[in-house]
Design brief:
The structure is a single chain. The chain is of the alpha/beta class. It has two domains: about 10-135 and about 290-305, 3-Layer(aba) Sandwich (Rossmann fold); about 140-285, Aspartate/ornithine carbamoyltransferase (Rossmann fold, 3-Layer(aba) Sandwich), CATH 3.40.50. The protein has eleven helices and nine strands. It has a five-stranded parallel beta sheet with strand order 7-6-5-8-9, with helices on both faces. Helix 1 crosses helix 11 (about 285-305), helix 5 (about 140-150) crosses helix 6 and helix 5 (about 140-150) packs across helix 11. It is globular, with a radius of gyration of 19 Å. It starts with 16 loop residues before the first helix and ends with a helix.
Length: about 300
């Protein structure tokens, strides 16, 4: 199989395990390209890609932009903060105006869950979801699983604990779908107020004690507290959260095995992860960032071929 089963990447829920493996194999090749002296290939030389971000982003936007430029695509960057969206222009009008400039592919981040799905039904271009509200963030889940595969050899059979603010996280849902499709066991861990009510219906284990979660897992994927999405208080204070759910080197050293520590970024240092754990020997956080470019190159390249 050398083609994706879909024209868009809207969520991990919509793609198959074969699609994921194909993306990984393609990313392996692009990772090799990124380590060459000349880090560019002409694969998408005739393709124009619009990065449309209705929400703030540093890592994801830069990672997509770098991936596009490494593939020699033409790139348009759009952020809603300095656009006509502020004047009341609709999503479809905004995107159609951009597409009339002959854009082939749209990478979109939006605060509303389902916005990329809505868009894909109304425009001709390929759509890549760079995060929709608290719903999904497929490329983050792909790069996380790719990083586990790179570090541990395979994802199948591994135990992965997702720790932190599961309720407001789009990374958590995409990770659960992706890891399960690849044969991993998944546990979620956090304060009861930050775990969705029926999360166990997704076939994950639920744990409220961080030390127990660390003892169980091979990989701890630590999520930040998303204060910008919280309209009410879900726990007394950041200090208290850090006390009960924060991870430090001492906790990792106490384990009778060496686990892998991951974080999608940005890290709230001293809250969910202390610097000694974030920068320590267990951490593959910087490898995740590097792998993000290769994974996004793979996704864009394969979708361009799916036209």
């Amino acid at each position: 199989m050398s083609q994706l089963s879909t024209r868009h990447l809207l969520g991990i829920k919509d793609i198959t395990a074969d699609d994921i493996q194909l993306i990984f194999e393609t990313a392996d090749n692009f990772k090799e390209v990124l380590n060459r002296p000349i880090k560019k290939v002409p694969s998408l030389r005739d393709i124009t890609i619009a990065n449309i971000f209705f929400e703030n982003s540093t890592r994801t936007r830069l990672s997509f932009e770098l991936a596009e430029k490494r593939l020699s695509a033409d790139v348009i960057n759009f952020s809603s903060s300095n656009s006509s969206v502020k004047k009341g222009e609709t999503l479809i009008d905004t995107v159609n105006n951009i597409l009339s400039m002959k854009v082939d592919m749209v990478v979109m981040r939006h605060a509303s869950p389902g916005a990329p799905h809505f868009l894909s039904k109304n425009i001709q271009a390929n759509v890549v979801n760079a995060g929709d509200g608290t719903h999904e963030h497929p490329t983050q889940a792909l790069l996380d699983a790719f990083s586990i595969r790179e570090k541990l050899g395979d994802v199948a059979g591994k135990k992965v604990a997702i720790i932190g603010d599961i309720l407001h996280s789009r990374v958590a849902l995409s990770n659960i779908f992706c890891l399960q499709k690849l044969g991993a066991e998944v546990m979620v861990c956090g304060p009861i107020t930050l775990l969705p009510k029926h999360i166990d219906s997704l076939g994950v284990k639920v744990e409220y004690d961080v030390q127990k979660a660390l003892e169980w897992c091979d990989v701890a994927n630590v999520l930040r507290i998303q204060l910008e999405r919280q309209q009410i208080k879900y726990f007394p204070s950041l200090r208290e959260y850090s006390l009960y759910f924060g991870i430090n080197k001492k906790m990792l050293d106490r384990l009778d095995k060496k686990i892998v520590v991951m974080h999608p970024g940005p890290i709230n240092r001293g809250v969910e992860l202390n610097s000694d754990a974030a920068d320590g020997e267990h951490s593959i956080i910087l490898q995740q960032v590097e792998n993000g470019v290769a994974i996004r190159m793979a996704v864009l390249y394969l979708l361009a071929g799916a036209k």
